[in-house]
Amino acid sequence: MSEQTGIVLVHGAWHSGSTWSEVAPLLRDKGFDVVAVDLPGAGPNASRPASFSKRPLESAVFATEPSPNAGVGQEERTQAFIDAVRASSERTGKKVVLAGHSLGGITVSPVVEAVPELIHAVVYVTAFMLAPGLPAIAMIQDATMADAIVPQLFLADPQTVGALRIDVASTDPEYRQKLKEAFYGDLTESQFEAALAGLHPDEPVQVAIVPSPVTPERFATVPRHYVRCTQDRAITLAGQDKMIADMDAALGGKTIVHTLNASHSPFYSAPDALSDILSRIAGT
Which numeric CATH code is attached to 6-283? Predict the structure, then answer.
């Protein structure tokens, strides 16, 4: 049994556990037991449509080929991180800080709902923190998200292919610029290239239609934090603020808010500041 506090990190859509490759060492240096797991259907667990590897890209085929990740559901993602939280708590003998980025928020919430007794605090890093009964797709389509760039990246009908499909290997300058603005607006070009190399094209769409299961009796007993990112073009600042207000109105209590002047990916552009926030939360 360790004296360290555990911090379990959940990545967002199209990303992987390597998202946290700069933040995790900083937290470990501060004495925390850090785990960053790849979600089912993501990172090395993701399959790619055959058309993705054929260049130049055949747009019509890419737009219609069924996703090999279409069968991945939220339940198995939730279970993967319940297991990660249990293992961390057993290893340290303490409650765990659970932090999720972006679409990783829809995994964080049901994990907290399932095992609130194991969670010291939950942290949403410019993430989908959804009020009871709300699916991610409803928030994606909300008026506060009208300026979000991500929907402009979709190259297939999600219902047709079973995935939110983007071309992370595109060489089209205009499309690449949208990718950068959506996810990595404050990164250098070399940082952007490195980040792109870690992405996969197909995020299983069915996870976006699952209603948020949070309740006052379980989820709301855990202190919750939200890291706002003021330059975010994937989840707009207005969208972030609406989710904070809606969750507080639905469940009572008050979300503790932290603000970074960063894009959608502060784990790359502001790793020191983000690790400081997480370490302070873990230390309280």
Answer: 3.40.50.1820
